[in-house]
Write a structure and sequence with these properties.
The complex is a heterotrimer of chains A (619), B (324) and C (351).
Chain A lengths: L2 H25 L21 E2 L10 E7 L13 H10 L4 E3 L6 E3 L2 E6 L5 E6 L13 H12 L25 H5 L8 E6 L2 E5 L7 H4 L8 H10 L8 H6 L10 E7 L3 E6 L5 E2 L11 E7 L2 H9 L5 E4 L4 H6 L1 H4 L1 E8 L3 E6 L15 H8 L1 H9 L3 H8 L4 E3 L23 H10 L3 E3 L2 E3 L7 E7 L3 H16 L3 E7 L1 H11 L4 E6 L10 H4 L18 H15 L3 H18 L2 E3 L1 E10 L2 E2 L17 E2 L4
Parallel strand pairs in A: 1-11, 2-12, 19-20, 19-21
Antiparallel strand pairs in A: 3-4, 5-6, 6-8, 7-8, 9-10, 10-12, 13-23, 14-23, 15-21, 15-22, 16-23, 17-18, 24-25
Chain B lengths: L1 H28 L6 H4 L6 H10 L6 H13 L5 E2 L4 E2 H36 L4 H15 L2 H15 L17 H39 L2 H9 L3 H38 L5 H11 L2 H29 L1 H8 L1
Antiparallel strand pairs in B: 1-2
Helix pairs in contact in B: 1-12, 5-6, 5-8, 5-10, 5-12, 6-8, 7-8, 7-10, 8-10, 10-11, 10-12, 11-12, 12-13
Chain C lengths: L1 H12 L1 H18 L1 H4 L19 E4 L2 E11 L4 E23 L3 E10 L18 H37 L1 H15 L3 H12 L8 H29 L2 H8 L4 H37 L11 H7 L3 H5 L7 H24 L7
Antiparallel strand pairs in C: 1-2, 2-3, 3-4
Chain lengths: 619, 324, 351
């Protein structure tokens, strides 16, 4: 072959290949800058809320990470943490909580009147507020939102309300709010008095109405009204909408969704029609956008923060030690916010039902064990909580004796039965039940070996370790536990729909400080009543008693009276152990030092005043 | 040449069909059908479930399902992902590209390093360099890829020089074009290292062996006798001929790269096809699993085809042989 | 059998052969005798000593002693040696009960701390205080024997398919080779995962060991079959084989009496060089959480537990020792296989 020809041939393909590679390198990864319709920007509303923080400089952006992807952006169905974060940024409510005192303060409602008999709540909405797309916000939207909760299924011909087996009406859009907003099984009524006034009437005195009723995220009637009418409401604001038409997710809060790429990142932009201003009358928020990267788990999230890549972070107790090390180099601060509201617990599936093929959810002989409170108590005595705090949480956690975490100092009842680590007591209880030990292994009355499976989510490292400890603790008691580490969504499906499990370890976080926030969990009809959700009538005496007590908690406004009833709830829960509580991690947060107006509080966290935060950029 | 490629492509089609059928059978062995995890979710419209059931024939025996699935695939419909609530095709494109990029860069990296090393080891046979590099090659071959990836993460965490995962930074979309290229490259460094080091070892050894074999060949003695300088003999004649057998190793390395990429992607949280497949298996997202396995196989088969084409291009005897 | 014996004699004449064989022997012995070797059981948690660094062994008071440590910062799992305090280390002392080789109940262990006064962590402890060294030797059982079991199945399968197709040729050969090509066209790990996700739900978690062996064997047999087929093809022309055929011996007998003996050395070499693949395959599966699960220990499982970020940042390097164990095993097998190959087939030497 001719040498020159050979050399030419040899050089060209690689160069071309290289060029193509570089070109496509970035090409296929282009960001999704979707063409959005321009929103109409209205002037600052006459009732704009003035926030009391020193004025700052506009511009800058927030980078953050969130562990876990969103499943949907429809607030009526969302069950994921990621989803709540996103929705919470876009939608807003009539009332909110003061970050210091925990009292209910005005938000979209500028004021309210409560009637003498405590049954009527009249909210006065801020005038001149507009949705992020420019449509005016009125009482119509509030009424619409509540209609979606309680819309009933009707016979298409007669228009009569359809009822279920128990005589209760069937709801069109069964969401958490449908049950959550009912007061003792009845619906509050609501009516629009004029464009900026809404009146709610509760069927009986309901102390936390301002908090729970007022805290509902308001939905835009002009966007969702049509879907409400034709029955497709629950299909709206899905992930596909978020990807292809994010501008359709219209809200009243300070940000709107600009772009979303599944499994990768979300970008939020400033709401041009936001209704809060600073002391100089300038429309907030200061930052232009928030870029949120979706990561696999909380650990990856902490890592990103520790490398100075993100601005705000909630730091796991086992990671605080090393995250702190980077504080100087990357210029951030780590704060100890004291006990957190997160809880961890184990429970046994007490659902006696059967699946569609007639097979019981839990084998009957095991259900018999689980249903005996002594079994649950014995298990509780056998768990080494102090060891978990020391070894797994590096001493940065508190024991959870009962339902209320030590953070809620006011409502916490210390006079409940406690279960310190005492395997002898466990064994005594088993013996009382007629169980016996053969060679260190526990057998029940009929001679069957005591064993069960426990599932928990695989993406939470600390929980995986707690499960391992639990298993070993049970092994000491002669019980064999099979651990199943599953994907979080799989677990949610099992505990709320298929009930195909024996025991589960999970946790909850957040929640308002009012004891009624746990209504969904504690009352037998609640969807989050984990061990046996959505009962039509209480399955046991004690669950019936708790239902009664919770109603009293809701019924009275006298705080001491409420406390008395709620104390009894805690006593029952501690005695019955339907949820075997473990530990509560301490709360640590971190933020980049360049952020101004940071005022963290135990109740509000780090970013309760997000609209007032701005970054000081060092040139 | 074109005819050659065409003929090879034809033989690949039955292979692909067989692979996908095998995977399909495997999937149908798993309990439940593709829709079990979804029926329990509430935010999936019943109409969509119904539509997918008919489209993919999920209530029919597996061969009917396979036939329908194949038909759908050929039309570009890869099914629906339940974890992401998206059509699979939307999900896979991005991931496929990321894995391809990683495999390519590992491949290029390993060749660029291995070939000169192999040649040098052959030229300076039995020297200290030769022995040391042989020892290092052994070591590199024996380290499990995911362990190497773990060690690299350890290293990144301690030094803070490299990102601990992902393919792009958080504010990637707001960087300039040049910035984006650099960002991607920066994120590719560790995965490429983890993936490429194993290949370096094997390629280097093969290169060295081939070089030594070629040196003994007849035409080299002729070239020397002609009085050509030693360096010209080595690099122009020997090298060109020694490289040929290496090209056939292309196919093996590509297969290893794909499998290895899966582990590396998971440890380094690089959002590629392998990581997607792993996550989907955990979440029982059947359509995605099926699609990603199929795509992995296709990539492998295409890679082998490329290797054959390259070989045919560089060695005319193969082209001509097949024509008979 | 004489061939095999000669092969091994040759291996032991070479330094590399001796070295690699001894390493492997040591590893397997450690696995078999894990019970006496390990001071603690695999599941003995100790929540007061999580992420404890390896305890230093010192010489004092006329015997071996274990350094005592105290936890000076629980929030960081930071331990410091207590000056002057240590525990006596007893050799050949009684400890937890076990059954030697599954039969003989025994109690003595290679080393134990006197009176159980404190812990002896040769390789530190993990996230729930379990001794890494003990888990390592018990985990060796799974990781090392899965390879042996899998390779046996593969070799048998590969020999039957490869041998038969090489011997008969024609259509049998054609079909078999297409199958082999097909199997080799699938990226190994992808197929592994797909197989695992298909088969696993049908089995309980303690049967996972065998499920994984089966899966690995199913993936590996193709390559072996192809090589054996090639060799059988050439051996077929051998005089002895022709003679046996003309005498009317059945093909299976011919395979066994004439072809197998000639193949054995190659089989052994191929086996030795393939076992690392199995060890790595099991490690990868367990690492992903798809293989051996708790309560069993395996090296891959231990590595997956080391994947926590704080391990990297707080420098708990001993959590990575299972990876080194895997590495040593793989290298030993590779070196041994290469030595054997050099002996069996001098033409392929790269010297």
């Amino acid at each position: 072959m001719d040498r020159r020809l050979f050399q030419r041939v040899r050089l060209r393909p690689p160069m071309i290949a290289l060029a193509i590679v570089v070109f496509f390198f970035v090409g296929c990864g282009q960001g999704e800058k979707v063409e959005r319709p321009e929103p109409v920007v209205h002037p600052i509303p006459q009732d704009a809320l003035v926030v009391d923080f020193p004025a700052g400089v506009f511009g800058g952006h927030i980078t953050e990470t969130v562990a876990g992807d969103i499943g949907t952006l429809n607030p009526l169905i969302n069950e994921s943490v990621g989803g709540s974060v996103v929705i919470g940024r876009i939608l807003d409510s009539l009332t909110t909580l003061d970050s210091e005192t925990g009292e209910v303060i005005p938000n979209l409602a500028k004021s309210w009147d409560i009637s003498e008999d405590n049954l009527e709540y009249t909210f006065h909405l801020r005038k001149g507020v507009h949705w992020s797309d420019g449509h005016p916000f009125t009482a119509e939207d509030v009424v619409f939102t509540w209609q979606t909760f309680f819309a009933k299924k009707r016979d298409p011909d007669t228009g009569a309300v359809l009822t279920g087996e128990d005589g209760r009406p069937l709801y069109r859009y069964n969401s958490r709010a449908t049950f959550g907003q009912q007061i003792n099984g009845q619906e509050p009524t609501f009516e629009k008095l004029d464009d900026y006034t809404v009146r709610f009437t509760t069927p009986e005195v309901y102390a936390p109405f301002l908090l729970f009723g007022g805290g509902v995220d308001i939905l835009p009637k002009h966007i969702l009204g049509e879907a409400y009418g034709d029955g497709t409401l629950l299909d709206q604001w899905s992930v596909e909408t978020a990807i292809n038409e994010p501008w359709k997710i219209v809200g009243l809060n300070m940000f709107v969704l600009e772009a979303y790429r599944a499994g990768e990142r979300m970008v939020f932009g400033r709401n041009p029609n936001y209704w809060k201003v600073n002391l100089e009358g300038q429309r907030l928020p200061y930052v232009d956008r928030i870029i949120t990267k979706i990561v696999q788990d909380a650990n990856s999230s902490n890592v990103a923060f520790a490398q100075g890549l993100t601005d705000f972070e909630s730091i796991g107790p086992d990671n605080v030690a090393w995250v702190r090390r980077g504080a100087e180099r990357f210029d951030y601060t780590v704060l100890d916010m004291g006990p957190s509201s997160t809880t961890n617990f184990v429970w046994f599936n007490l659902n006696p039902g059967e699946n569609s093929e007639g097979k019981p959810f839990v084998p009957p002989y095991k259900l018999e064990w689980f249903s005996d409170k002594r079994f649950r108590q014995a298990v509780s005595y056998g768990i080494n909580r102090e060891g978990i705090i020391r070894g797994v949480f590096f001493n940065r956690a508190d024991i959870l004796h009962g339902y209320v975490s030590p953070k809620r100092k006011f409502w916490y009842n210390d006079a409940i039965r406690k279960y310190s680590y005492a395997p002898e007591k466990s064994r005594a209880l088993f013996e009382e039940m007629g169980f016996e030990y053969r060679g260190g292994v526990l057998f029940d009355r009929e001679g069957r070996q005591v064993e069960f499976s426990l599932m928990t989510n695989s993406n939470n490292g600390l929980r995986v370790e707690m499960a391992t400890v639990f298993k070993e603790n049970m092994a000491t008691l002669g019980i064999e536990v099979e651990l199943q580490f599953l994907d979080f969504n799989t677990i949610v499906t099992k505990i709320s729909d298929s009930f195909d499990y024996e025991a589960c370890m999970l946790g909850l976080g957040g929640g308002a400080p009012d004891p009624y926030a746990g209504k969904d969990i504690l009352m037998s009809g609640g969807r989050m009543h984990f061990w046996h959700p959505q009962q039509t009538t209480p399955a046991t005496q004690w669950e019936a008693r708790i239902d009664q007590l919770m109603l009293e908690v809701g019924r009275h406004t006298d705080v001491e009276l409420r406390k008395k009833y709620f104390n009894e709830v805690q006593v029952i829960l501690a005695e019955q152990q339907p949820l075997i509580f473990l530990v509560s991690a301490k709360d640590f947060v971190g933020y980049q030092n360049r952020w101004q107006n940071i005022q963290p509080s135990a109740l509000g966290g780090l970013t309760w005043n997000l609209e007032s935060l701005w970054p000081e950029v060092n040139e | 040449m074109i005819a050659f490629i065409f003929r090879r492509l034809l033989t690949l089609i039955p292979l692909l069909l067989a692979i996908t059928m095998l995977v399909f059978i495997l999937m149908s062995l798993a309990p439940g059908d593709f829709l079990t995890p979804v029926k329990a979710q509430r935010d999936v419209p019943a109409e969509l479930i119904q539509a997918i059931e008919t489209e993919f024939g999920l209530d029919r025996p597996w061969y009917v399902q396979y036939y329908k699935w194949l038909g759908n695939v050929l039309q570009g419909n890869l099914g629906h992902s339940w974890a992401y609530k998206l059509p699979v095709s939307d999900l896979i494109g991005q991931r496929l590209w990321a894995t391809f990029l990683l495999s390519l860069s590992a491949f290029v990296f390993s060749w660029i390093i291995a070939i000169p090393l192999g040649v040098l080891a052959a030229v300076y046979k039995d020297s200290i360099f030769d022995r040391v590099s042989a020892g290092l090659a052994y070591t590199a071959l024996s380290i499990p890829e995911f362990f190497l990836a773990l060690l690299l993460v350890f290293f990144a965490a301690q030094t803070g020089l490299f990102p601990l995962g992902g393919a792009t930074s958080i504010d990637y979309d707001y960087l300039s074009f040049g910035g984006q290229v650099l960002d991607r490259a920066h994120h590719l460094i560790l995965p490429t290292l983890a993936l490429g080091i194993g290949s370096i070892a094997s390629i280097m050894r093969i290169m060295r062996a081939n070089f030594l074999d070629t040196i003994r060949a007849g035409f080299v003695a002729t070239a020397r006798a002609k009085g050509l300088r030693e360096r010209v003999v080595m690099f122009k004649h020997v090298l060109r001929n020694a490289i040929n057998p290496l090209i056939s190793a292309f196919g093996f390395t590509f297969s290893g790269l794909l499998s290895g990429a899966l582990m590396v992607e998971i440890v380094l949280q690089y959002p590629g096809l392998g990581q997607l497949m792993y996550q989907s298996i955990l979440r029982e997202d059947q359509f995605v699993v099926l699609a990603s396995v199929m795509l992995g196989c296709i990539m492998l088969v295409v890679g082998n085809l490329l290797a054959d084409v390259l070989l045919a291009w560089s060695d005319p005897r193969i082209r001509l042989e097949n024509k008979k | 059998m004489g061939i095999v014996w000669n092969l091994f004699k040759e291996v032991f004449r070479r330094p590399l052969g001796i070295a690699s064989a001894s390493v492997l022997l040591a590893l397997y012995l450690a696995a078999i005798f894990a019970d006496p070797l390990a001071p603690y059981q695999t599941n003995a948690i100790d929540l007061d000593r999580t992420y404890h660094p390896p305890t230093a062994i010192i010489w004092g008071e006329g015997g071996l002693r274990v350094q005592a440590y105290e936890l000076i910062d629980p929030t960081e799992a930071l331990y410091q040696a207590i000056e002057g305090r240590s525990y006596a280390l007893d050799l050949f002392a009684p400890g937890f009960e076990y059954r030697l080789l599954g039969l003989i109940p025994m109690r003595w262990h290679l080393f134990q701390v006197e009176d159980d006064a404190g812990p002896v962590y040769l390789l530190g402890s993990d996230s729930t205080g379990r001794d890494v060294f003990s888990r390592l030797v018990f985990g060796a059982r799974v990781s090392l024997f899965i390879g042996l079991l899998g390779i046996t199945i593969t070799m048998v399968l590969g020999f039957i398919v490869g041998g038969l197709s090489g011997y008969f040729g024609g259509r049998v050969d054609f079909v078999a080779m297409r199958m082999v090509e097909f199997m080799m066209a699938i990226p190994g790990l992808y197929l592994l995962l797909a197989l695992r996700s298909a088969l696993a739900p049908h089995f309980a978690s303690d049967q996972m060991f065998f499920v994984i062996v089966v899966i690995l064997a199913l993936i590996g047999w193709a390559g072996t079959a192809r090589v054996l087929r090639g060799m059988t093809l050439s051996l077929r022309q051998n005089q002895y084989v022709m003679a046996a055929e003309s005498m009317g011996q059945s093909p299976l007998v011919i395979l066994r009496k004439h072809i197998l003996p000639n193949l054995i050395s190659y089989l052994l070499v191929a086996a030795t060089l393939s076992i690392p693949g199995y060890v790595l395959g099991e490690a990868a599966l367990s690492f992903l959480g798809l293989g051996i699960q708790e309560p069993s220990a395996s090296w891959g499982l231990m590595l997956s537990q080391a994947q926590d970020v704080k391990v990297f940042y707080l420098n708990f390097w001993w959590m990575l020792t299972p990876g080194i164990a895997i590495f040593v095993t793989v290298i030993a097998y590779n070196v041994l296989g290469d030595v054997m190959r050099d002996i069996v087939d001098p033409k392929t030497q790269t010297r």
